[in-house]
Every structure is written in structure tokens, then in C-alpha cells.
Design a protein that fits this description.
With 369 residues, the protein is an alpha/beta fold. Helix content is 21%, strand content 27%. The radius of gyration is 21 Å and the shape is globular.
Length: 369
């Protein structure tokens, strides 16, 4: 009897130590460092590449004052997400704003009540690099917040810290090389100084030319309506405050037709659904990832999914994972034990793309049906 009780006690201790829980949801990213424990049975881990993508990033602004900079000078703003961001061949974000210590020409808005400009201290690029980011999309409505001076400073600063960038007219594409594999990035938006999301013919040509140089091509876009109610992809042209934000559905499909292997979006400030098109993965919005101080973060506006995809050498989707983060304390991304970002992306995928052949499990695993 004592031996039986001792054995039972050991089992209980083992389960507790293993982090066993009823729904098998795990915070640790350790099972994503190899493909052996993911959603597909991959016999050769070298047969797939891993890409991590997140949404909008604005780590704090010193314009018009330093009141909107995070505590500790922002040094630990990405600390909880770091272990998740590092576990991929390439990690990509959307830099929403400029990197400039002072000066610049703040943008002038038609409606001052809806006008904000972001100017991050240049050394914040070091935090981005240290967190694991390799590439940044610059095509969005805040990349020109400080005029040409801001654009130039942003590019020069990212270059100094070894981060590739794309999406400006002056820097349309970028290539990141990992273990001999060339990952190409380009980005599009409806804003001045960026590659246009509404000129599909020109965009397709850029993607097609980039594909000739790269093994894998990733297209980022800033498009679609904004706000907590903008979670659906309506397959029509979308507008926000009178601005033509493009037809995201049509654009994404045409970019894949032109040679893109992955398309991911930002702009709505909320997560949207995902689909497969011709075997390629499209994530229509990854929402706000790290947007400190100046962004509304209540409800679904504060959800910050970290999307990790595994794709084959031919660029086709193999499997993936959504890590559910949310923003707290005015803009610190932390792991969300309630998995709200997963639930929202899962529901929007089912609602908006019932024909797609991917499944998203409650714990964020993405698989092909």
C-alpha cells in the first residue's frame, strides 16, 4: 500500500513539474525550436523554413515630448516576447513610425483631431534587434511622420543595427540571407513615400522581380479599415477617414499570383483571419504588437499575436503556430494565458474564409485539413 501511494505521489509530482494542464495549452516556445513536436510530421526538419511575423511596432515616441516614452527608457519593453521572437529563420515586424532623436518635419494632417506623429529614439532600434528581429516593413501611414529627414534617419539607423528594411519608394525591397537561403521582403501601403497598395500592376512587377532573386518572398501590406469593428475581410475596397485603404483580399491574391510565398497585413489595429491561396499563407492583419503610449489598446485592439509559419522549399505552407500575446501597461506585449488572439483569428478565419483548408486549434496550432 505504501509503495502504491509513493508511486501515485511521484506521478502527481511529475505531472505538476511537467506543467500538465487540462487543455494542454503551453506558454513555452521550446516545442517550436524544432519541427518534431509541431502540427505536422516532418521527417526532415531541413525541408522547411520558419518565419515569424508580428503587427505594428511603435516602442514609444519623444514627440512632442518624452512623456510618451516607456519606463526604463524602453529597455525591457520586448523582454517577455524575446524568447518567442528568436525561434525562427527570419523574424519580421512592421515599424510604425520613425527612428529619429530630434528634429524632422512633423506631418500636417487634414484633420488635426486624428493626427499623431511618432518619433522613436534611434537607440530603440537596438532593442528591436536584441529581441530577434531581422527585417522591418516600413510601408505604413506613419513612416513619413517626420518627413524625408525621418525616413532617411530610419533607414540609416536600421542599417546601423543590422536590420533589413523595405516598403519605402527609396527602399522598395530587402533580402535577408540565412544559411544560404534568401528571404525577400517588400511592403505596400496607400501612403506617400511608400510602395502603393492600390497599384497592383506595379506591385506585382516588384514581387515578380524579387522572386527572381530570392528563394522565399514575403509581402507585407498596410491596408483595410481601422478600429475594433474592423476584424472582417469583406473582399471589397476599404476606406478609413476618407482614405482608400485598398482591397486587401484582391491585393493579397494578386501578389501570390506574382510570386509571393507569404502575405501578411497590418493597418486595422486588430487581428483578422487567415487563409491559404494556391498553397500560400495569407494573414490579413496581425494587429498591434508593441505600440506604446499613443494607441488605444482596449479589447481586441490590445491583442498582439505572434505568428510563426513553417513553409516548404517551394514556399508552400506546411504548418504553423499563433502565440497569443496582448499589450498591458500602455504597450508592453505579454503572453496571454486566455488565448484571446488565437480565439479571434480562429473565429475570423472560419467566418470569412469557410472555403480555406486550414484549421486553427484552440491553442494556436495551424494545420492543413
Amino acid at each position: 500500500m505504501n509503495k502504491l501511494l509513493s508511486s501515485f505521489t511521484l506521478v502527481i509530482i511529475f505531472l505538476i513539474a511537467s506543467g500538465c494542464n487540462p487543455d494542454n495549452k503551453q506558454k513555452t516556445p521550446k516545442d517550436e525550436k524544432t519541427t518534431s513536436n509541431t502540427t505536422q510530421n516532418i521527417t526532415n526538419p531541413d525541408s522547411v523554413y520558419s518565419i515569424i511575423m508580428v503587427g505594428d511596432m511603435m516602442l514609444g515616441t519623444n514627440y512632442p515630448s518624452a512623456a510618451s516614452l516607456p519606463p526604463n527608457d524602453g529597455a525591457d519593453i520586448l523582454s517577455e516576447a524575446k524568447e518567442f521572437l528568436e525561434i525562427a529563420d527570419v523574424t519580421i515586424g512592421n515599424l510604425e513610425g520613425t527612428l529619429l532623436n530630434s528634429g524632422g518635419t512633423p506631418k500636417v494632417c487634414a484633420n488635426p483631431d486624428n493626427c499623431v506623429a511618432f518619433r522613436m529614439p534611434e537607440h530603440y532600434a537596438g532593442y528591436i534587434k536584441d529581441a530577434g528581429f531581422d527585417m522591418m516593413n516600413l510601408a505604413n501611414n506613419h513612416s513619413g511622420d517626420m518627413g524625408d529627414i525621418g525616413r532617411t534617419s530610419t533607414q540609416n539607423t536600421l542599417k546601423t543595427y543590422g536590420i533589413k528594411y523595405a516598403g519605402h519608394i527609396s527602399a522598395p525591397t530587402a533580402i535577408f540571407i540565412k544559411d544560404g537561403i534568401k528571404f525577400g521582403l517588400t511592403g505596400f501601403a496607400p501612403n506617400n513615400g511608400t510602395l502603393s497598395i492600390n497599384d497592383h500592376k506595379k506591385a506585382a512587377k516588384i514581387v515578380s522581380e524579387l522572386k527572381k532573386e530570392c528563394d522565399i518572398v514575403i509581402v507585407a501590406f498596410h491596408g483595410g479599415a481601422e478600429g475594433s469593428g474592423a476584424t472582417h475581410v469583406n473582399r471589397r475596397r476599404e476606406f478609413y477617414l476618407g482614405e482608400d485603404r485598398g482591397n486587401c483580399y484582391e491585393f493579397a491574391h494578386e501578389m501570390i499570383d506574382a510570386g509571393a510565398d507569404i502575405v501578411f497585413g497590418q493597418g486595422p489595429h486588430v487581428p483578422r483571419g487567415a487563409e491559404l491561396y494556391k498553397g500560400k499563407f495569407i494573414a490579413y492583419s496581425l494587429g498591434n504588437f508593441c505600440t506604446y503610449g499613443k494607441f488605444g489598446l482596449s479589447g481586441n485592439l490590445g491583442l498582439a499575436p505572434v505568428l510563426k509559419l513553417y513553409i516548404t522549399k517551394s514556399g508552400d505552407f506546411s504548418h504553423g503556430r499563433i502565440f497569443p500575446f496582448k499589450q498591458i501597461k500602455r504597450g508592453f506585449p505579454v503572453f496571454d494565458e486566455s488565448y484571446q488572439a488565437v480565439e479571434l483569428m480562429r473565429r475570423m478565419t472560419q467566418n470569412d474564409f469557410p472555403e480555406t483548408n486550414i484549421d486553427i486549434s484552440p491553442d494556436g496550432k495551424i494545420s492543413i485539413r
